[in-house]
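Give me the 3D structure for GCN5-related N-acetyltransferase.
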Amino acid sequence: MIKFQLLTKENMAENALDNYDRLQNVRRVYRKIDSEYMLVEDVGIMDWSFERKQAVAKALISDDYITFGAIREDEIVGFASIEKQLQGKYIVLDMMQVSRKYRGKGMGRTLFQLVKEKAKEMGAKQLYISACASEETIEFYKSMGCKITDNPIKKIAEDEPFDLQMVCDVD
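Predicted structure for GCN5-related N-acetyltransferase (171 residues):
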């Protein structure tokens, strides 16, 4: 059984993601071509090194983020993290991941709903997402009601030039 809970320094260790399976096989990505987003073939593998997993775990429980986890038998199998500070009308969804063998089972939907509710509690009007351009990732966010924004947060868009900048109303 999967349980969902707020992750904190008290209930999550810095090594909690050491065995996390981030692997994602990418076949197609969205790219802006002549002012329109189109799917193009771009085969690759997205994964994290051991060091990256430890850095992510440490960041998730830092004072900068609010993180919800999906937990199965004391193992984190998914998480979604938002920044604690509003950026205008936005709360930034900093990171959202579901372990490979748990994808497609509704966990991402539940995690997304939890951060969306928290963002609303915090006074945000929209979640802001700098989303990996992979077809599967963008289709997930679209299914959650997200859309590409015409008004991206400049620094985030510049830091992640291949990501799609998306927003989702929290109401």
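The chain has a mean pLDDT of 95. Let me know if you want a second pass.
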